Amino acid sequence: MIEVDQLVKRYGSTTAVAGLSFTARPGRVTGFLGPNGAGKTTTLRVLLGLDAPTSGSATIDGVPFRSHRRGLRHAGALLDAQQAHPGLTAAVHLAALARANGLPGRRVDEVLGEVGLTEVAGRRVGTYSLGMRQRLGVATALLGDPPVLVFDEPVNGMDPEGVRWARGLFRRLAAEGRTVFLSSHLIGEMAATADDVVVVGRGRLLAEGPIGDLAGAAGSLEDAFLELTSASVDYRAGGA
Ligand SMILES: Nc1ncnc2c1ncn2[C@@H]1O[C@H](COP(=O)(O)OP(=O)(O)OP(=O)(O)O)[C@@H](O)[C@H]1O
């Protein structure tokens, strides 16, 4: 379970997150939606202990991520597909992470198989396409077999086969009882993948709940999203 409670994060005079509260539950895929600059990445960074909150809290099963001694066994995340050193092979990258986190070496082969990278595991990550790096990021998140998974724009750069694969994986992870929390700008993809959505704008909660409730009222998730966020968009083409 992910719980964000009255979270505020300021960078100097910029308020990236302005008192945000929401919950993402086990057994559900929860989509995290919002226009550019809404504070999604900042929220995920605080949730994963990469940034400290100005006030409020973001916890995983009631505890801030940094306080979890189980590390990758407790939560896995894909925040940046460039996280692996380009000079390392995928196998070496994952093996080092497994060792550092006290995970069994067999997990490396298991997650490489899970994400479809077994054949290219001996290639340097610098030669990977963006879609392959995204798959490696997903493999990294899965390494500790954690109950909570967080993915920031996971299908960015994936081809249609990759997008379909990722959708199936997220659904299966949730069906196994895990909390799956993902941000994406691809509303159609979110409509096909998520059970629940959390919509933010300018660092505030705009809506939270089952996707059907939100989409049903407006006609589609895209219509609901555009209506909800129309007052929270900083940049718009054509001066509209
Ligand atoms: N390290 C930082 N220093 C200063 N301002 C920051 C920093 N990180 C984020 N911001 C600002 O905080 C606000 C929220 O940014 P954030 O990246 O969290 O939004 P986002 O919803 O992830 O956007 P996008 O969809 O474009 O990725 C923006 O105004 C951004 O410029």
Description:
- This protein is an alpha/beta fold and 240 residues long.
- The protein has two domains: 2-74 and 148-233, P-loop containing nucleotide triphosphate hydrolases (Rossmann fold, 3-Layer(aba) Sandwich), CATH 3.40.50; 86-145.
- It contains eight helices and nine strands.
- The protein has helices at 40-47, 90-100, 106-115, 130-142, 160-175, 187-193, 211-218, 221-229; strands at residues 2-11, 14-24, 29-33, 55-60, 75-78, 148-152, 179-183, 196-201, 204-210.
- It is globular, with a radius of gyration of 18 Å.
- The model has no long low-confidence stretch (mean pLDDT 91).
- It binds adenosine-5'-triphosphate.
- Residues 11, 14, 16, 34, 36-42 line the site of adenosine-5'-triphosphate (ATP).
Instruction: Note the main sheet.
Output: 6 strands, mixed
Low-pLDDT residue spans: none
Q: What is the level 1 CATH name of the largest domain?
A: Alpha Beta
Strand order of the largest sheet: 5-6-7-3-8-9
InterPro entries: AAA+_ATPase (IPR003593), ABC_transporter-like_ATP-bd (IPR003439), ABC_transporter-like_CS (IPR017871), P-loop_NTPase (IPR027417)
Domain ABC transporter: 2-227
Keywords: ATP-binding, Nucleotide-binding, Transport
GO molecular function, one term: ATP binding
